[in-house]
Amino acid sequence: MTRGPITAWLSDMDGVLVRESHAIPGAAEFIARLKAAGTPFLVLTNNSIYTRRDLSARLRLGGLDIPEDRIWTSANATARFLDDQRPGGSAFVIGEAGLTTALHEIGYTQTETDPDYVVLGETRTYSFERITTAIRLIGAGARFIATNPDATGPSPEGPLPATGSVAALITEATGVRPYFIGKPNPLMMRSALNALDAHSESTAMIGDRMDTDVVSGLEAGLQTILVLTGVSTRAEVERHPFRPTRILDSIADLVDDIPAPASAAS
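and the corresponding structure tokens:
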């Protein structure tokens, strides 16, 4: 199928734009070209710990100037989903400021008393007491939502248990599986498209993982670009039943895909 030109871009963050808090070569130029051209874009992350403002500040320290309104997290996608499903509802939340702020912004009440949902996100300090409360609330009928299925997260000392691992613990205790919002659920992509008011046919997703970025982009109808600066390797692509639209060494290979502004070109 012949596709038209790409008029909007979605990009994963870790492994595509940054690695260990430092900008990957070419990332700053790519973002600068998008901004100069006025091209709609969002940077996506399954991380629900930080607010968009926090992430913007952290990226700036790493050498990337990305405004907070150009960042879309699994917490934002979760909030939009809950606002669509049950506006003005209530939730018992396990998570950090990124998640609690996103839910506050849509007018959700956060409570331990008969909530509509238990919402599980990522935190560096999972509390046994709060996990126990979540188990009991789900057993009493609360619906179970999790921001993303990632089983582990990175740290300087090695992997840490993340949302998917804690969700598995709660599922084992309750027999209830959560509905995961973040990648690889294509809902994450569709919520980002809605935030941009963009169309899937003319949007591309850039990622470094076949099992999350590429598959969710593909299932949302986007063109998909795998860069080899993160998790997936070129050899790994051949083991999957689906393929990205393009495979590139890094984000630097995409800079020239963004038209330079007319003033710069002249």
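(Above: one complete record from the training split.) The longest helix spans residues 74-85.
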